[in-house]
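Weekly modeling sync, notes
Attendees: S.R. (lead), two postdocs, one rotation student

Agenda item 3: backlog of single-chain predictions. S.R. asked that every request posted to the team notebook include the full sequence so nobody has to chase files. The rotation student volunteered to paste the first one in as an example of the format we agreed on. Action items at the bottom.

Example entry:
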Amino acid sequence: MFKPDFKKMELLPAIAQDAATGEVLMLAYMNEQAWNATLETGEAHYWSRSRQELWHKGGTSGHVQKVKSIRLDCDSDTVLLLIEQVGGAACHKGYKSCFYRELKDGQVRECSPVVFDPKEVYR
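Predicted structure, as returned to the notebook:
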């Protein structure tokens, strides 16, 4: 059966990757409830460790992740979601990717565009 091994760990890492460009957009965590909600809706759901609740990505901002493909690693303990990022931003800070900072030549710089102002979206 194609299913993560939630017996190993209750929360598994889930990587969201842009299906069109291959860019890694974010890392979150899934439990079995999030996995099932993702399969049922075709949109990414995660488990919020800070709020201790199921989290529909984009439920507040409208920046949902439409799942195009799901992959599991060889141990079935990491999920890779190939997604279409609706609204252009995966990061709650307004960036296209949560990995918006890069260390290059000893300097940290932003390497992902700002797509929205979080103050406007999360009032």
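Discussion: group reviewed the output briefly. The two ends are 42 Å apart (CA to CA).
Action items: rotation student to repeat for the remaining queue; S.R. to check formatting next week.
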